[in-house]
Design brief:
The chain is 40% helix and 13% strand. The chain has helices at residues 14-24, 36-56, 69-83, 98-111, 128-134, 157-166, 186-189, 238-253, 255-276, 321-330, 350-354, 359-362, 376-396; strands spanning 2-3, 63-66, 89-93, 114-118, 139-143, 171-174, 193-197, 208-212, 281-282, 311-315, 333-334, 336-337, 365-369. The chain binds pyridoxal-5'-phosphate. Its cofactor is pyridoxal 5'-phosphate.
Length: 398
């Protein structure tokens, strides 16, 4: 099997499992219990919080453990927007994850918020002037993702955060896909809130982090026993917290080298695919204008500072993403059809449509996302299999 779906999830790293194991077995206390077992769990939780804070450069008290990226986004958006007395206006982008879009829509439907959706260009990039124009005196929150899960576009988050600061608007970013590949230093990013998910990083599914800096008010979304200083009730997932803290520290320790190596492997892979299947279109940043209307020449695939190092997403006009996925699956290659915008949906991806791609072409999308362990040999095999699968699907569709 060749796994090229790391943007969907990653296996738990052995080192992460090893630090979690004692907390799932002998040292299994509830951190709220006032006995030695509980106090030991509390010490582990505190240490995990400090470790996350050190990885991203914030105070331990800014770290809230959640059940994953979806909950972090929900808590950030509903929690910050509802606690902020400035008004009822939110700014977001057209290519956010559903966890963001649906949370924003909830505020619109149930709490009467006005929403300004900032557009993106054909690469998926936001124009800072559009953000500037969107910010108002009654804007409660600006939420714009760091890196996109489908086409890998990386937004100029520090510059957007600076604009927000100038307008005194709190800024949240969904950094779920960026973690492990891009710098997460909060001082450099300048955001007020940031979401992370464990299972994209070599920690288990069901654990996430929301950072909310400083003393910003946050309305809880989950009510109960007052854990996480009242911001997220529910008995803490101590092993998960220790796991995500360790995974984050490990990912950060070799991030730069891993990102550089993935980017050059990815660029060679993209060039290989485009030379084997000249009809294919690399979607997202570093795409020359020409490929939106015609085939790309392999020499036009430069490295891009605006693209996640591990992402290569294509459309294969004249096929369907799902059929290609099946063909590739038969050859032992695991990747993702970029077209489904949510579980069970066969609508064209809102991300690709926002990039100006024809909805019919958007249905032919396939996303390949590398891990730190992906090799050049694997990618050469995959590129050859893509060509075979493409010819097979094209011949079937006449
Ligand atoms: N945000 C982005 C950008 C994602 O890619 C994902 C998951 O794919 C999420 C949020 C949701 O994270 P989780 O699966 O931990 O709920």
């Amino acid at each position: 099997m060749i796994f090229l779906d790391s943007a969907a999830t990653t296996p738990v790293r052995r080192e992460v499992l090893e630090v979690m194991w004692p907390l799932l077995t002998g040292d299994f206390g509830n951190p709220s219990s006032h006995h030695e077992l509980g106090e030991s769990a509390k010490r582990s939780l505190d240490a995990a919080r400090k470790s996350v804070a050190a990885s991203v450069g914030c105070r331990a008290s800014d770290v809230i453990f959640t059940s994953g990226g979806t909950e972090s986004d929900n808590l950030a958006i509903k929690g910050l927007a509802l606690a902020e007395p400035r008004g009822r206006h939110i700014v977001t982008s057209a290519i956010e994850h559903e966890a963001v879009l649906e949370s924003v829509d909830f505020l619109r439907r149930v709490h009467g918020f006005e929403v300004t959706v900032v557009p993106v260009d054909h690469r998926g990039l936001i124009d800072l002037e559009d953000v500037r124009a969107a910010l108002r005196a009654d804007t409660t929150l600006c939420t714009i993702m760091y890196a996109n899960n489908e086409v890998g576009v990386v937004q100029p988050i520090a510059a957007i955060a600076e604009l927000c600061r100038e307008h005194s608007v709190p800024m949240h970013t969904d950094a779920v896909q960026a973690a492990g590949w891009l710098p997460l230093g909060l001082a450099e990013l300048g955001v007020d809130a940031l979401s992370l998910s464990g299972h994209k990083l070599g920690a288990p599914k069901g654990i996430g982090v929301l950072i909310v800096r400083g003393r910003r008010a946050l309305e809880p979304v989950i009510h109960g026993g007052g854990q996480e200083r009242g911001k997220r009730s529910g008995t803490e997932n101590v092993a998960g917290a220790v796991g995500i803290a360790h995974a984050l520290a490990l990912a950060e320790s070799d991030r730069v080298a891993r990102a550089q190596s993935a980017a050059s492997l990815r660029d060679a892979f993209a060039a290989d695919v485009l030379s084997r299947v000249p009809e294919a279109v690399l979607t997202g940043p570093a795409v020359p204008e020409a490929v939106l209307t015609g085939p790309a020449a392999p020499s036009t695939v430069p490295q891009s500072a605006h693209r996640l190092p591990n992402n290569a997403s294509f459309c294969f006009p004249g096929t369907s993403g799902e059929s290609l996925l099946l063909e590739l699956g038969r050859a032992g290659i695991i990747c993702s059809a970029g077209s489904a915008c949510a579980v069970g949906s066969d609508e064209a991806s809102h991300v690709l449509v926002a990039l100006g791609i024809d909805p019919a072409i958007a249905q032919t999308a396939v996303r390949f996302s590398l891990s730190g362990d992906t090799t050049a040999e694997q990618l050469a095999t995959v590129a050859a299999q893509i060509e075979t699968a493409y010819r097979a699907v094209r011949s079937l569709s006449g």
